[in-house]
Amino acid sequence: MKLSFSIPSKSKSKPKPVADKDQSDDNNTKQYVTEFDPTETLQPQNAQTPIIQPIQNEYRPHKKMKNIDLPLHPDSSTDLCFERETLSSDPAAGASDSISFGLNLRHSTASDSTQTQEATVEDVMLEKLRYDLKRLPEHRGSEEFEEMPVEDFAKALLKGYGWHEGRGVGKNAKEDVKVKQYTKRTDKEGLGFLAASHDSKSSNKSSNFSSTNGNGNVSSGGSVTVEQRERERNKDGFFVGKEIRVISGKKENLGLKGKIVERLGLDSLVLRVEKSGECVKVRVSDVAELGSTKEEKCLKELKELKIREEKKLGDWDRERKPVNKRSVESRESSKFGNDGIGKERGVQWLRSHIRVRIISKELKGGKLYLKKGEVVDVVGPYKCDISMDESRELVQSVDQDLLETALPRRGGPVLVLYGKHKGAYGNLVQRDLDKEIGVVQDSGSHELLNVKLEQIADESWQFSMESVLVGSSGQLRGLTHTISKLGHNKLPLLPSLFPSSTTTSTTPVTFSPFRPFASRKRRLNKKSSSSGLMSKMADHDQAKVASADVVSGDMIFQPILEDGIFRFDCSVDSRVAAHPSLSFINSKDRDTPIVSHSVPSYTPAFERVSGQQIVKLEFPVGTSFYGTGEVSGQLERTGKRVFTWNTDAWGYGSGTTSLYQSHPWVLAVLPNGEALGVLADTTLRCEIDLRKESIIQFIAPSSYPVMTFGPFASPTDVLKSLSHATGTAFMPPKWSLGYHQCRWSYDSDERVREIARTFREKGIPCDVIWMDIDYMDGFRCFTFDQACTLLDDRFLDKFIVFDKRERFRDPQSLVKDLHDNGFKAIWMLDPGIKKEEGYLTYDSGSQNDLWIKKADGEPFVGEVWPGPCVFPDFTQSKVRSWWASLVKDFTSNGVDGIWNDMNEPAVFKTVTKTMPESNFHQGDEEIGGCQNHSYYHNVYGMLMARSTYEGMKLANEKKRPFVLTRAGFIGSQRYAATWTGDNLSNWEHLHMSISMVLQLGLSGQPLSGPDIGGFAGNATPKLFGRWMGVGAMFPFCRGHSEKGTNDHEPWSFGEQCEEVCRLALKRRYRLLPHIYTLFYMAHTAGTLVATPTFFADPKDPGLRTTENSFLLGPLLVYSSTIADQGIDKLHPVLPKGIWLRFDFDDSHPDLPTLYLQGGSIIPLAPPHQHVGEANLSDDLTLLVALDQNGLAEGVLFEDEGDGYEFTRGGYLLTHYVAELKSSVVTVRVSKVEGSWKRPKRRLHVCLLLGGCAMLDSWGMDGDVLKINMPTEVEVSTLVSASEKQYRTRLGIVTSFGPSFCPLIDNFLTAECAKHIPVEEEISGPKGVELSRVPIELKNGDWTVKWLHSRVEIDGYEEYSGIEYRSAGCSEEYNVIE
């Protein structure tokens, strides 16, 4: 009798492990019994090792995997033959229909001779699949080997091929095969990963103790349940019992390896060290999994550091051994030669102001070992004086051999000390510690230089001006340019450099003759030699602390305003001393605590050093950062640093760190999709440092509170909460959402009328025409040009009158003509008031003492467009009322909107581009009282916009004001829209415009947009058309260009570009009901209008860096910002779910692709020429996209489009729903709000099917409308036909055949879109485009230099160009050789 069984249960046909009879003497192996036979003697259990037999080759068992002989000519000896595999089974089909896709091997049969029809492709493939499935051996599975150790499993496999222990494998084997188990771990998953729970040895050694995991559950004996482990793993992967390594944090803990024994909340854990057994507390962010890339990187760096230290210690110890006098003399002789000058000692690399590390334990008794410092002076060929970082101790006459250069972090500034590229200055873009080599990008030529790491050093010679020149406030004076004093050894005193600045004390700096000027490539004129000083914004990461008074700790909190909002302060005293909030709607809301039982999820840490308050918040790895206000560059801000200091930044670049507005706000999106906002509520210059992953750091003068909003379930919830504090956007008049046309400048009313007439003649929608400063009389605000004085571009410091005639004779008549043609008029007002007696505005302000004062109490006078100007002090309520009254009177001329420009405030002919920070404002007590300009600088533009807004409201209470401001602060959305400033006509700025608009929205300002086509320089037709395509979808849509460039109206670039612009703007006007509804929701609920694509799925990390698409509610706009790639050449990246493409029969390669999210309904209108053409009785179209459940919903807001009746119920808010049941889609009204009655109008419902296909049905608005769904075959035919039409329009060659439906074929006869021709880049007039070479600007005995078209100083960057247009630099530009 035999008894058979299997472990676990499997088919009997499965090969079974059998005993190895040749190794019966092996007592260390296990025997797996699957068949019991009483006739055979059972071997001892540990006497044999199982054998896993290999799968035999079914074709030629005696030949391993050889190619089989193919029977190309079937004969009687075989029944195998080949046949063609074809697409058609029709024997009459032509050759083109019977193209073979390969050969199928099959057995010939007697029926072949009578077969008249070949098998179809599907039949052939199906039969081949069945045949292959029969041939496949049954999968063994791995269950039966789960209990087998890895070593035994490997032995069993090898024995199947004839291997025996002690013998080699193969004919020429000389030694036995060694079987070893490798337990190297990878990251959290993947090949070779072994969870800590599988380590039986470790689990047996666990101590008997009780620990609390992250969920608050108690686990005894050091073990955790599977459910607990899963919950921990779902959070951050660090569960109790897991082995980890410390990779950062305290130095004494670096490199420690151990097992987690306890979780202390979400941020900390207790680690039992493997060797010592002691327990240490570490932060989750300071540890990494074993085998992860972070752990490997840490071990590699520790090993390199150890090797380097041992090597240099050995060299130093050998040099310091006692020797006799003759040995010393011999060594000195060999080093210095007979004359004492270094000849054979080696390369002399010491330079002043480079950073070094001491590598000798002998110096100062070893207390300075491995400490860093700065070389402050080179006192000999191989000797220098060093200022130590921590102690500020000055160590003199340190030998070069006792030092090594300190390397910056990747991206930091370095100087090449010797070698082929000696003297080159740039950034360290790559380094290899194994090979001791690196790559430096030269800051002048941008060339990549290969260097040895020993040849470069962290260059800190461009030290901060505040370490040399300190005023009464102890703050940096805002200098931004490289200043070289030519021909002198001492830096001139500050007043001689900048007469407009005032300081209490200055100290000249003497440069040692042994301190060579660390020149950059092509930076200085070869004919001159100089010493230099670089002024910069302070880098607080490496700040030199003069005082030992450092206070640090966790900030204290109190809940404010509503649940989920917390205020943090350094102390109770700091909370009491904090200035009033200018960002909050009501400052008292920030200062009044509420009763709440919730506690903050993240608590900031602070440090106060030398009057600066540093606040740091750490988040989980994988957190993404957004916001920071008006910033250029990438959408996701990790790795970036900005400074909140409103700056006139003409021609800014992707790395410019200070633009026109300040928003000390960061939106953090956590890895799980939740979000949290952080606001540093200070008006002073603030550094927002996001260069370290998952860490937010604010640095600003003490003291200021920090507010956190959340974490909430989504980013939208965070921004709603922010709006409750800082306010929602003002409700714009509907006409302001149309297209705006602007230029600097339409210089006469005749030209304005011509522009308006051309728009209507060409059928291009437009609502607004703008008047720049040339409408004024000599650039005097609140005046109109009766005898215009024009400014010649060749001269800034003089007014050249070359054309004198009445250009704006009758502004009221002009406005009337514009209104009659459906246009609104917007006029500019700047803050600079011309200092001229007899000028009514100046006289009025002077009589009432309304100007900003200098430190001596006299009104500050700065030069702007009119010449010498004074500036209203908008921090005073009486000044705001005065300005509002002027605006009220000005509006009576028919002004529809006002444009506030130059209100950073910008000042000409000063390097700082603004007024001195020592100026003072006599502010109201409720906003901060009397303060210097550094306190009010960032809010000056917002306060001016507020005054303008209030003045327009006074002029007509029945009209909504429209104000556009260039400068702003967080909260300015309550009063004004904004734009992204003086951008450039290039593809980079087109791409950046999307991210910049989104960042402003994420910072609370939803009404913004760029200058479409670019302000500076000449756009090409392709660039302008592409920019108009995406710009027509922005919340604020305006084309604008500067003087001296070609015309930039939509018809200025040829017929093809004109047609693209027409199609783009018609799209916008069709979507205006949807856009207007979004603004109503933004005004009432604090939601956004335009959002990043990842808002559709915040949990998807792949969407967080998408920059060429954005959302308008459920509408996704996908565009191309690449010059040589239209939308037809891109593959869209869409969020998860249903996204249905649609168009208005207007698809074009240079227009964005539109998608509607499943489950959504959006309203559409006819494409009017201007908003005033619209009527409530117009047909209403609803675009419907069903979700996976057959449901959809949407909302439409309607009111008069202007005025404030909507605040009193005078509106209609309609909620529409659609539902699919039994192949019928029903569309109806589900909810109505407001007192308006529903207009009598037709309703047109378009149901999207995909691929731009749709079904439509007509009815009356308010009635239930039903649509019968076609069959799946009919839907497929419609989608296929629509897809063909779409591809034809884009000019894509399709392979679609006829639809077999004449009606559809006739309907889909579509013409290919006319592509915009590609032209060479058009350069603007001389000086308009950015300079491509270094620029030097001289003024007396000082020089300002621009390098590679920009000044970049420790992260602060400004571009050169025609700086007089914004900064007022009138001196001649000289190109440096």
Task: Give the SSE map.
Elements: E1 3-4, E2 18-19, E3 35-36, E4 50-51, E5 80-84, E6 103-107, H1 121-135, H2 150-159, H3 200-204, E7 210-212, E8 218-220, H4 226-235, E9 243-246, E10 257-264, E11 268-273, E12 279-283, E13 287-289, H5 293-319, H6 325-336, E14 355-358, E15 372-380, E16 383-388, E17 394-399, E18 403-405, E19 413-416, E20 425-432, E21 437-442, E22 448-452, E23 456-458, E24 482-486, H7 494-497, E25 530-534, E26 550-554, E27 556-559, E28 565-569, H8 572-577, H9 587-591, E29 605-609, E30 612-618, E31 624-627, E32 641-644, E33 661-662, E34 665-669, E35 675-680, E36 686-689, E37 695-701, E38 706-712, H10 715-726, E39 739-741, H11 749-762, E40 768-771, H12 811-820, E41 824-829, E42 833-834, H13 840-847, E43 862-864, E44 867-870, H14 877-891, E45 897-900, E46 920-922, E47 930-932, H15 933-936, H16 940-955, E48 963-965, E49 968-969, E50 977-979, H17 987-1002, E51 1008-1009, E52 1011-1012, H18 1021-1031, E53 1037-1039, H19 1055-1070, H20 1072-1085, E54 1090-1092, E55 1109-1112, E56 1115-1118, E57 1139-1142, E58 1153-1157, E59 1160-1164, E60 1180-1185, ...
Parallel strand pairs: 33-49, 39-40, 39-53, 40-41, 41-45, 45-48, 48-50, 50-51, 52-53, 60-64
Antiparallel strand pairs: 1-3, 2-4, 5-6, 7-8, 9-10, 9-13, 10-11, 11-12, 14-15, 14-18, 15-16, 16-17, 19-20, 19-23, 20-21, 21-22, 24-25, 24-68, 26-29, 27-28, 28-38, 29-30, 30-37, 31-34, 32-36, 34-35, 35-38, 36-37, 42-44, 43-44, 46-47, 54-55, 55-56, 56-58, 57-58, 59-60, 61-62, 62-63, 63-66, 64-65, ...
Helix pairs in contact: 11-12, 14-16, 18-19
GO molecular function, one term: hydrolase activity, hydrolyzing O-glycosyl compounds
Domain G-patch: 150-196
Subcellular location: Nucleus
